[in-house]
């Protein structure tokens, strides 16, 4: 009986002790979590004042890697861009598409003949500019943008594009969209020939490019038909 009473008393004491230990436990967890978050931020951003209210934008600016601004940014990632086309255009610009010359340098293929002209080695520079197939298509696209010039090589053409494809005029928008779409559809045609034995003539690919650009421009309601844009609107069947 005595032992029973002692145990009962012990139980009461333990219960009180537990109450004390777990009082405000949820608030203490929240406080400790905030303490841990602050500590992590201090490690990640030692130069930022922790007393200032932090916004996600501030944190993003601190943790993201910074790189120099590039002059081709507005050509590839222009405001009205078509994501899929711009992505391939970006890969081509960085020369990261698996063209045959690159595959050969990795020892993956031995044959590098261009599949669109069968006359030349496939490289980024050849496929998109040196090749007679691409040359015809790009020249027609320039004409559709009201520009009469004969493209020479990849570097000079892209340098020209950076210079003349700037701005928000209808012509510059069409020019940038045409370029990115041109890269995408040429690459697609190359893959269709290589892997599916399916061929399209230049005129068909040109029509696909023009339709992609036309739909995008119409979709954005960007076009205002006036005396200075009438010719372009007629050429692209927009407005
Ligand atoms: Zn070729």
Automatic annotation (TrEMBL):
<feature type="domain" description="Reverse transcriptase zinc-binding">
    <location>
        <begin position="58"/>
        <end position="138"/>
    </location>
</feature>
<dbReference type="Pfam" id="PF13966">
    <property type="entry name" value="zf-RVT"/>
</dbReference>
<protein>
    <recommendedName>
        <fullName>Reverse transcriptase zinc-binding domain-containing protein</fullName>
    </recommendedName>
</protein>
<dbReference type="InterPro" id="IPR026960">
    <property type="entry name" value="RVT-Znf"/>
</dbReference>
């Amino acid at each position: 009986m005595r032992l029973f009473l002692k145990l009962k008393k012990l139980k009461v004491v333990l219960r009180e002790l537990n109450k004390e230990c777990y009082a405000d436990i949820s608030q203490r967890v929240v406080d400790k979590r905030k303490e841990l978050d602050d500590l992590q931020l201090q490690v990640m951003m030692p130069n930022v004042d922790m007393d200032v209210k932090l916004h996600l934008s501030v944190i993003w600016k601190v943790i993201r890697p910074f790189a120099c601004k590039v002059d081709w940014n507005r050509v590839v990632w222009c405001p009205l861009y078509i994501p899929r086309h711009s992505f391939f255009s970006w890969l081509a610009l960085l020369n990261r598409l698996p063209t045959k010359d690159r595959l050969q340098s990795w020892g993956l293929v031995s044959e590098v003949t261009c599949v669109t002209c069968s006359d030349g080695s496939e490289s980024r520079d050849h496929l998109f500019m040196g090749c007679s197939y691409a040359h015809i298509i790009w020249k027609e696209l320039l004409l559709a943008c009201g520009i009469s010039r004969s493209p020479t090589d990849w570097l000079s053409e892209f340098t020209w594009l950076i210079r003349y494809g700037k701005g928000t005029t209808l012509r510059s928008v069409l020019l940038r969209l045409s370029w990115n779409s041109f890269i995408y559809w040429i690459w697609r045609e190359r893959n269709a020939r290589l892997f599916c034995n399916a061929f399209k003539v230049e005129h068909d690919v040109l029509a696909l490019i023009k339709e992609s650009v036309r739909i995008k421009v119409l979709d954005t309601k960007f076009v205002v038909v006036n005396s200075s844009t009438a010719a372009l609107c007629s050429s692209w069947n927009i407005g």
